[in-house]
Write a structure and sequence with these properties.
alpha/beta; ABC transporter transmembrane region fold; transmembrane helix; membrane; heme binding
């Protein structure tokens, strides 16, 4: 009478299915045990949790779906009890009702996790007990499929009551699957880095700390939605029908592989049974041919079969497309970033992030699409096959073994994430140190600091290897854990199968089938940990690259920006104010007008704002107030490309590409012919010097142009500007780093550049701008004097003092 009409507690397996009495009792008992940690977590949240302001609670439809599923699961228990009223004993009914209480406590905890957070938790997302509850709910519903062929259950749907119960089971399966899947993303739980402050006063304003810029912690799966949005264009080759067909063919091959895998051990079983029972040759040779053919398609060990080989061949072009697209888009994005970002970047870290990020995207797509997804499909097929072909015990053994394996893999890999992140950070520092030292090798030589640089690099490598040691040690622990779980499952399943063979319940071929299939299943599963770890590694490697993609453009074209059509070349600054940081004002109400064809000069002490004016005209930064106009057109309303096409710059420090002289000059106008390049070189008075070199215009200038002298590099820069033929010329202390003789020679070349063009010259040596139409004296971001050379000397102010000082020095 313990279970009413459902019979006694034993036997556990009867009528091709589990005993309902046994199942309900065990499941409800485990639910009762789960009540204790649920109540503990609820009590902990109520005592130590910090309330979260409503503005920090993320709004998500997925969270509303979680709440709905929890409510439906809680309501379903008493409804099912009413449907089966009178069929079960009160003892069993009481055990079943424990599930309802467990669901109610789960709803309570979900509500607390939405509105409160534990500061000491140090992680994001749902609590471990909540995730375990949802996982247990799903596993209990999946386990019922072992009794699919049993008439004691309601899968046959012979009566209206059984049809209702079957519908309830489908609903529970759907709800528990959604809860378990969505739970890993925790859409309704506030994020740790943005909601732990009850008010703005809790922030460390004095020291300038920002909780959003904390070191990375937690799972690499956080922010998976944003990562997927960035990755999607690289996963699906939009606009390329040829590559799209290749992707679809690869998917079809994956499906074919999932169909082939179960049949390989089945035909091997048929061969063994045929040989042991004395089947005719006509039967045996067909089974052997089928087995060998399927094995050829499947492959063995580390060698891929025909299907994997064909899939790898088809995927090559897709992988190349992804590789190229990632690098080109990131390269384009980096060039679109502001000058402020480029001045503060670390070249070594950026290059390292690009390399690792590009490789990681290719690895991520390959691991997920061709390894993780097929392995999960193989696991599900194996569980269903063992339940139907053998019995539920074998399906349960495989399910528990694989569940433990996956759980151990995920938990230990998540734990190892911090070691990998730390290793990447130290790797970036080591590479940055090496590149920075090599780029500044002249300074190293000047100060005889080779030993210091080597010692510093050695310390960086040692620091990196400490993190590498922890990463590899934790990997060994992960592999041992996986191997223990796999062999434990193989041992239990083999012992049970051997016992059935001795009891004449199974044939010898069934034992061979179990061993072959389970080993075949464990082979990709043995790499599952590696794949998951590599996915984690890929996500970690991509984090720095995602940071580069997220780096916003400081200077943007407006949606209705026009193309600048410069006609006269008039330049106007109207009450321009600018600051790099709010604390320090660089320019204060700067106003001046340069008429077409005139030359204006900017002079003043270092840091007064002269070069900033040049950068603002080139629109490297946006101003805070005022207007900068070209031909009476506000430069903020035109496209940056058309603006910069009208302006030529000869900088103080000319940096050349590691290419030949011809291509460095041609950079002023990429489409220029060789004859035009030589004309520009002749106009800048460097043509004859180039012809005197052994390789002439094919002479390599070296990295940053170090093989050329300062005067030669400056003339190359002038030749570039002449080749560009701009309407406006900006000279930013173009001769300040040169000796007096070289400066006088280059002044003639600069005069050719500025002839007939609107020019603005930033000058350090006043002798170079005595013929300027107007000289502006800038001090502390303000124009304090303006006029021609003679007018400023007659004024007897700051300019006159600067002139007298330089005259005395000369």
């Amino acid at each position: 009478s313990y279970c009413g009409v459902h019979g006694g507690f034993t036997p556990i397996w009867r009528n091709d299915g589990l005993s309902q009495c046994f199942y309900d009792t065990v499941v409800s008992g485990i639910f009762f045990v789960l009540l204790l940690p649920l109540f503990y977590q609820i009590n902990k949240m109520r005592k130590h949790g910090v309330g979260v302001e409503s503005k920090y609670k993320p709004r998500s439809i997925m969270y509303q779906l979680q709440v709905l599923c929890m409510l439906l699961l809680s309501i379903e228990v008493p409804v099912s009890f009413c449907v089966t009223w009178g069929e079960v004993d009160h003892v069993t009914s009481g055990m079943i009702c424990i599930s309802m209480y467990c669901g109610q406590f789960g709803c309570w905890l979900l509500h607390l996790e939405r509105n409160m957070m534990l500061l000491a938790l140090g992680r994001k997302g749902h609590s471990a007990i909540m995730l375990f509850l949802w996982g247990y709910l799903l596993s209990t519903e999946v386990l019922k499929t072992a009794s699919w062929n049993s008439e004691d259950w309601w899968f046959k749907q012979q009566t209206p009551q059984q049809q209702i119960l079957f519908g309830f089971w489908v609903g529970r399966l759907v709800c528990s699957s959604l809860l378990f899947t969505i739970g890993f993303w925790s859409p309704g739980v506030p994020k740790l880095n943005s909601c732990l402050y009850l008010s703005e006063d809790d922030r460390d304003v004095e020291n300038g700390t920002d909780p959003l810029n904390r070191p990375r912690d937690g799972s690499t799966w956080s922010g998976i939605k944003e990562k997927a949005v960035l990755l999607w264009p690289y996963m699906w080759p939009t606009g390329n029908l040829f590559l799209q067909c290749r992707v679809m063919m690869c998917v079809a091959i994956l499906i074919a592989g999932r169909v082939v895998n179960p049949y390989v051990p089945i035909y091997y079983k048929n061969i063994v049974n045929g040989l042991t029972t004395g089947q005719p040759w006509s039967y045996v040779w067909v089974q052997v041919c089928a087995y060998v053919g399927l094995k050829f398609l499947q492959g063995s060990g580390m060698s891929g079969g025909l299907l994997n080989g064909l899939r790898s061949y088809l995927w090559i072009r897709v992988q190349q497309y992804t590789n190229r697209l990632v690098q080109v888009r990131l390269f384009s994005h980096l060039h679109s970033l502001s000058l402020r970002w480029h001045l503060s970047r670390k070249t070594g870290e950026v290059l390292r992030s690009i390399d690792r990020g590009t490789i990681s995207i290719n690895n991520l797509l390959s691991y997920i699409v061709f390894n993780i997804v097929p392995t999960i499909c193989d696991i599900m097929i194996a569980i269903v096959y063992f339940i139907t072909a053998f019995n539920a015990w074998f399906g349960l053994i495989v399910f528990i073994c694989l569940a433990l394996y996956l759980a151990a893999t995920i938990i230990i890999t998540e734990w190892r994430t911090k070691f990998r992140r730390d290793m990447n950070t130290k790797d970036n520092k080591a590479k940055q140190r090496a590149i920075d030292s090599l780029l500044n090798f002249e300074t190293v030589k000047y100060y005889n600091a080779e030993e210091h640089e080597v010692r510093t690099f050695d310390e960086a490598i040692k620091d990196y290897q400490e993190s590498e040691y922890l990463t590899n040690t934790s990997l060994v622990f992960l592999n041992l854990s996986q191997n223990t779980i796999i062999n434990a499952g193989l041992f239990v399943g083999s012992m049970l199968c051997a016992r059935y063979v001795l009891d004449d319940k199974f044939q010898i071929g069934d034992f061979v089938l179990f061993g072959t299939y389970i080993i075949q299943l464990y082979t990709p599963l043995g790499f599952f940990g590696t794949y998951y770890r590599m996915i984690q590694t890929s996500f970690i490697d991509m984090e720095n690259m995602f940071d580069l993609f997220k780096e916003g453009q400081e200077v943007l074209d407006e949606e209705d920006s026009i193309v600048l059509q410069l006609k006269t070349g008039k330049v106007e600054f109207d009450n321009v104010c600018f600051s790099y940081t709010p604390e320090k004002q660089i320019l204060k109400n700067i106003s001046f007008t340069v008429n077409p064809g005139e030359t204006y000069a900017l002079v003043g002490s270092s840091g007064s704002g002269k070069s900033t004016i040049i950068r603002l005209l080139f629109r490297f930064y946006d101003i805070q107030s005022g207007v900068i106009r070209l031909d009476d057109v506000d430069i903020s309303t035109v496209t940056q490309q058309s603006l910069r096409a009208c302006i030529g710059v000869v900088p103080q420090d000319t940096v050349l590409f590691n290419d030949n002289i011809m291509n460095n000059i041609r950079y002023g106008r990429i489409s220029a012919r060789d004859e035009e390049v030589e004309e520009a070189a002749e106009a800048s008075d460097i043509h004859h010097r180039i012809l005197a070199m052994p390789d002439k215009y094919d002479t390599m200038v070296g990295e940053r142009g170090l093989k050329l002298s300062g005067g030669e590099k400056q003339r190359v820069a002038i030749a570039r500007t002449l080749l560009k033929a701009p309407d406006i010329v900006l000279l930013d202390e173009a001769t300040s780093a040169l000796d007096t003789t070289t400066e006088r020679n280059i002044q003639a070349s600069l005069s050719r550049v500025c002839a007939g063009r609107t020019s603005i010259v930033v000058a350090h040596r006043l002798s170079t701008i005595v013929n300027a139409d107007c000289i502006l004296v800038v001090n502390n971001g303000e124009i304090i004097e303006r006029g021609s050379h003679d007018e400023l000397l007659d004024l007897g102010g700051v300019y006159n003092e600067m002139w007298q000082q330089q005259l005395t020095e000369t």
